[in-house]
Every structure is written in C-alpha cells, then in structure tokens.
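User: Can you predict the 3D structure for this chain?
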Amino acid sequence: MMDCLCKATAEDVRVYAAVTTELTREAANRHSCGVLATAALGRVMTGALLMAANLKNRECLTVKFQGDGPLGQIVADASADGAVRGYVAHPEVELPLTNGKLSVGQGVGRGLLSITRFTGLKEPVTGTCEIFSGEIAEDLTRYLFQSEQTPSSVGLGVLVGRAGKTEAAGGFIIQPLPDASEETLSRLEQTIATLRPVSAMVKDGLSASETISEIMRGFSNVHILSETELAFRCQCSRSRTEEILSTLRDEELAQLVEDGQAEVCCDFCGEKYHFTKEELLAIRQAATENIKG
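Assistant: Here is the predicted structure, written as structure tokens:
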C-alpha cells in the first residue's frame, strides 16, 4: 500500500489521516533503529506530516521532542508536499514493555516539545510546550490546544513485528471547525472514545481515505479534499555538504586537509559523503577566496 495522506471534512469537522508504513520502515533501516526507537520515530514523523498538511507549498515544519529519556532527542522535518525525514539520538535503546505495550513514553521522558514553522517569512515561528507523557500523540494534542488554541485529537500508531520490521504505521488528526455545534462535539467525543488503534486499521489494509471513513462512520457528507503521496526524503546532497564544509574556520579545514580525508554523515538520513585531500584543498581554497573577495 502506498504511503499517503488524505484530507477531508465531514459536517463541522476536519480530519486528516495518513498511512506511513514504508517511510517509517525506511527511516528505521537507515538509522538501524530498535523496536522502541522505530515506534517513537515513526510516530513523530507521522505527526509532523499531519501537521504540515495545513502548510502552503514550499513551507515546512520541524517537530522536536527534547526529552530526558534514554531515546534522547527525536526530530522530524515535514513539508506540505509529503516529504519527511527524521532521526532519533539513540536508536539502539530498548526498554521492558509497560502493560504489554512499548514504553515510548518512558523512552522519551519529560522535557520540551517544540514545533517550528518555516513559512517564507524572515524568521521562522516556534511554539513550545512541556512534554506531558512522551506518548507523542498525547503531547501533540496538548501542544495544538495550548500553543495554537486548536482543539484536536491526534492518533498515532506504529506496529513492529517480532523480527523488528515495521508492519503498519499511520495516524490521524481530528479537529472540530470553529462553528461546530454542541451536538457535533458530543458525537465526536463518542467517536474518538470508541476508535480502534490506527495501526490496526492500517494493518488490516485500510488506505488513508478508508481510515477516514472508519473514523467518521457516525458522520454524514464525508468529503475528500485531497490525497498526497508521502515519502522519506532528505534534503542533503554532496553540494550542500561542500557548502557546510566551506563555512568551517580555516584552521579546521587545514586540519581536515592534514588528515587527508573527511567523511560527513547526515543526521537525518544517515547518508555519508566522503571527501579526498584534493577535494578538501579545493574547498579550502574557494573559501579563502570568498573571504578575500
């Protein structure tokens, strides 16, 4: 099943749903994630994609969980066109199950959740709130209410098999529109209370639009607005890495030249870029000429 994000409305409600199995699997493979890190990173990336769905073309956002748990920092970048990338600081960490479930909250710990929106203005806009549970979906729900005054319900899920392979991943955001009636809000609360895990829906083969149909089964006039293909896609490249190297201090570049080589690894995708002594000399020379110019 293709990873996809679907946007829809139903009566006085807005709902987005996403299937993110393949991109979660790719991220886990790239970072050699254990089961716990796969679940946490997959949830954060899915949440970032759902929140980026409100952005305009070429806009993007960064979701960062800076907790004190053993997983360390978890970061995801997502854009309105369906691209996402992410990493977890300590992908090897595993913890005992809690009540038969993965201990994502314990792995994340307490700390700060921040979301930065890059909208093309001179300065990006960042909102923050304290991490409440570390369960990702609960924290994003609280963030939307506290920092953006948007009542929402966020659901995220990643199902990892015994062999460590991601079997299903996805999520949704449900938001009542400003003019939603009390009757609509009441039905929405009942619907959310009886929903089965989103990972179970995806595991059963439901697409993003079919997931919305199940979520909004008690509502009429479900109208699909758009569907966007999703993918794990990094912004790094060899040329961008060269630009970063050129910003180093001259003594740092001189040390790399003396070492005879350099290898730069992208935190987000794990891609490695190798530079020879000759290439480093050329980068250093170009940087020196730019300073003189």
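Residues 133 and 163 are 27 Å apart (CA to CA). The longest helix spans residues 35-52.
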